[in-house]
Fold this protein.
Amino acid sequence: MAEKKVKTTKTIKKDEALTRDALTSKLTDLKKEAMEQRFQLSAGQLQKTHVIRKNRREIARVKTQLNKKGN
């Protein structure tokens, strides 16, 4: 019998322990990385295009954690 595998994201649990300042700096780094990836994609230098989607989702996770912590 094949069992269904459930995906769990460990990054969410790690991000919950981070402080607001650490999340903000991580968000800045992720946004810079996303910009570099867009440049590489337009220049035809990006081999693994799936990393753009992963990065975008990671940005959303960090923003969610920031919103949970409050403004």
In short: The two ends are 48 Å apart (CA to CA). The chain has a mean pLDDT of 86. The chain has one domain: 17-69.
